[in-house]
Amino acid sequence: MSKILNIEDLSTNELLSGFSEKSYSHEDHDRWKMMLNAVRDAQEGVACSSYKKGMSILSNSFIDIPDLKELNYKMESHTGWKIMPVDGILGCEDFYKLLSKKIFPSATLVRDWHSTSFTGYPDLFHDTVGHLPLFFDPTFADFVAKSSEVIHQVLIDTPTGGEKEKAIQNFTRYGWFTWEAGVIKENGKGRAYGGAILSSAGETTNLKERGFDEFNLQEVFNQDFTDQNFSCRYFVIDSYEDLFASLDSIKSIYNLN
Ligand SMILES: [Fe+2]
Questions:
Q1: Which of 14-28, 57-71, 160-174 has the lowest mean pLDDT?
Q2: Hey, what domains does the chain have and what are their CATH numbers?
Q3: Which of 50, 73, 236, 255 could form a Cys-Cys staple with 137, CB 3.0–4.6 A?
Q4: How many A from CA of 237 to the centre of ligand 1?
Q5: What does the mean pLDDT of the chain come to?
Q6: How close is the Cα of 194 to the center of ligand 1, in Å?
Q7: What pLDDT is attached to residue 257?
């Protein structure tokens, strides 16, 4: 498991140093293009307006496997967020600490042929195509940074043991049912803002078949899920303000001012 220590001291070049060593095969490039075509088709009538707006700025970067340095430049100049290439899975506290500092950790691996419509592990396609366009909506990006700051604070304040395990479980479910599998109402219709939906043609189909329920924080905390399959459930918010309201509830539950 990767361990991040002095995030504040890392320069953009240091953040991106892991990506410059990465090379991709012809098959990787072919899979990327095939997945992009499938997902763009599946997103029709499903993607929320924030995602579509961000995608209109980033789409040229996604025609082929993106140059993460170029992508980082676009992100930083438009949104103030940076990208950090990460191989493997970060520990919880490091993950939220990075996001609270407006640094988006991205996998560099491109998923294999068997996982083109769904992957249970982080990959470059999910992280960039699924998530980055939403960061061009300043309200959503602000929510990710602020919620990550709160979650990181709760995690470092909670002693190791059952209480911490429960907090990690709550926040894993919260992350899954918001920025991974979240749905927002637009003109009375549910539109996806979650990256797991927006990076998976299969997940998009699953959402259409299952429908969604009104967002409720306690239900989210109580709702088990597995990231090894399509989501068992989806929750819809009226606007991103609902997410900030849920964050106020989290602060209250965990006694944070
Ligand atoms: Fe994700």
A1: 14-28
A2: 25-253 (1.10.800.10)
A3: 50
A4: 19
A5: 90
A6: 8
A7: 73
